[in-house]
Design goal:
By secondary structure, the chain is an alpha/beta fold. The longest helix is centred in the N-terminal third of the chain and has 20 residues, at 103-122. The chain has helices at residues 11-22, 37-44, 55-70, 80-96, 103-122, 179-188, 210-215, 369-376, and strands at residues 2-6, 26-33, 74-78, 127-129, 134-138, 143-147, 170-171, 223-227, 233-237, 260-266, 271-276, 284-295, 303-308, 316-322, 327-337, 344-349, 352-364, 367-368. 26% of the residues lie in helices and 30% in strands. The protein has 8 helices and 18 strands.
């Protein structure tokens, strides 16, 4: 069976390709170019690094070294237009509204498990594989996605928006092993990427300062930071769009009142609302509305399961029920902090990923949390 593996130039996808080859598949690799790095440098006015070889090109060279070491062909695919249209444009649109989107989830939905799949089928491949830490089980007529056995690396959260039918032709070779085991295999094979650090952040930003990058597309406007308890101005922010609910770093608020964190914002007034560590209740909500839910399994309402409202968050007990057209009400009466509009709520039943959608609003005692914050500072 012919399998096309997304080779990113990292250790995870490299070991995924090796494991598939060991299992008897006919394996080829493909490097996806999703961002025009040359245009990126022009926009930002920043020089490239490492002898003027951009990080994306360095990743491609690493992917080629892996392919050569494993004895598999490497294809190179350009998805720049698709990435711009389906991922980056959405990213900017959400930030402009003052929300916090997750481009990695959109990249999986539109690029790695859609455009990449179409390319694979056109080239005669029967299956697609990636180095994600997740599991997929295939049954007669359907497939389901589960959390990876390595709970510290589980990436099912980022895969919650992929098409359900794509699971039928998906392989996740790393789902049953741990990250230390992946490193060990790469070292035994003497792969050039064995000690390569995991990539962090958003691919089109790389190691650059996030605010500096976003300012090229959504110019910053300074405004007041207001304490939601005292209603006093306690500082100045560098652009309300750049902050997210629950954020603690980069606020620049002095004094001896403990740590501060973001509890809300008003995009029209360009105001950022904060509370200190003595007022953490301002982060809490007991329910939220979720839209655009992509169901990866058959469900019956009401659903009693768990949810993650951000990556690496613990599982939260929830009840899910329909709430109008394409909306679902997610209840968690035990209270959860920093549930943030624009981010993803991903649902589980034990280890099975049921799917996920975008958080639209949060509530506390039946009242819109955002409105509660704005009302408090009037």
């Amino acid at each position: 069976m012919k399998v096309l593996v997304g080779l990113s130039g990292g250790v995870d996808s490299a070991v995924a390709a090796y494991l598939l080859k060991q299992q008897g598949y006919e394996v080829a690799g493909a490097f996806m170019r999703n961002w025009d790095s040359a245009a990126n440098n022009d926009i930002l006015g920043n020089p490239t690094v490492d002898n003027e070889v951009c990080p994306q090109e360095m990743d491609y060279h690493d992917a080629q070294k892996v392919a050569d070491a494993l004895g598999i062909p490497l294809l190179r695919i350009d998805f720049i237009k698709e990435y711009w249209d389906d991922v980056f444009t959405n990213f900017l649109s959400e930030y402009k509204k003052g929300r916090t989107p997750n481009p990695d989830i959109l990249c999986n939905k539109y690029i790695k498990f859609d455009a990449f799949f179409k390319f694979a089928y056109e080239q005669g491949f029967e299956k697609v594989a990636t180095g994600h830490y997740a599991r997929v089980k295939h049954y007669d007529g359907y497939s389901e996605m589960l959390k990876a056995l390595d709970s510290n690396k589980d990436q099912s959260y980022f895969l919650s928006q992929i098409k359900r039918e794509a699971l039928n032709d998906t392989l996740f070779p790393l789902g049953e092993i741990t990250k230390p085991e992946v490193r060990r295999i790469a070292e035994e094979l003497k792969l050039a990427v064995a000690d390569k650090k995991d990539s962090t952040g958003i691919c089109f930003i790389g190691e650059r300062n996030f605010k500096e990058f976003l300012n090229n597309y959504l110019p910053a406007h300074d405004g007041n930071i207001i304490d939601v308890v005292s209603k006093e101005v306690v500082g100045t922010h560098g652009g309300v769009l750049y902050y997210t609910i629950g954020q603690r770093k980069g606020l620049g608020i002095g004094g001896n009142q403990g740590r501060w964190f973001v509890v809300g914002k008003d995009v029209e007034k360009n105001e950022l609302y904060v509370a200190n560590s003595h007022s953490t209740d301002w982060l809490n909500s007991d329910s939220c509305l979720v839209s655009g839910v992509n169901w990866l399994a058959d469900v019956t309402f009401p659903i009693k399961g768990t949810a993650k409202f951000r990556y690496r968050q613990k599982d939260n007990d929830v009840t899910i029920e329909p709430y109008g057209d394409d909306l679902y009400l997610v209840k968690y009466p035990q209270l959860v902090g920093a549930v943030t509009p624009g981010q993803q709520a991903v649902f589980y039943k034990d280890d099975v990923c049921l799917g996920g959608g975008v958080i639209e609003k949060t509530f506390l005692n039946g009242k819109d949390h955002d409105e509660l914050v704005k009302e408090a500072v009037k």
